[in-house]
Amino acid sequence: MNDHENFGAELRRLKPATPPTDFMARLAAISPPTPEQAETRAPHASVADAWRQIFRWLLPATAGVGLLIAALVWAGLKPASQMSGSRPQAAAKPVLKPDDVQIDRQLVAAYDAVAQMPGGEPVRFRCQQWMDEVVLRDSVRGVRIEQRTPRFEIVAAKLETY
Amino acid sequence: METGTPDRGRMDPTPAHADWRRWLDGHAPKFLLFARQQARSDADAQDLVQEALIEAAQRQRDGAPPPPPLVFATIRRRAIDLARSEDRRGQREQTAFAAMPEWWFDTSVEDRELGQLMQNAMSRLPDTYREVITLKVWGELTFAEIAEALDIPANTAASRYRYGLAELRKLTKEVLA
Question: What's the pLDDT score for residue B160?
Answer without folding.
Answer: 94
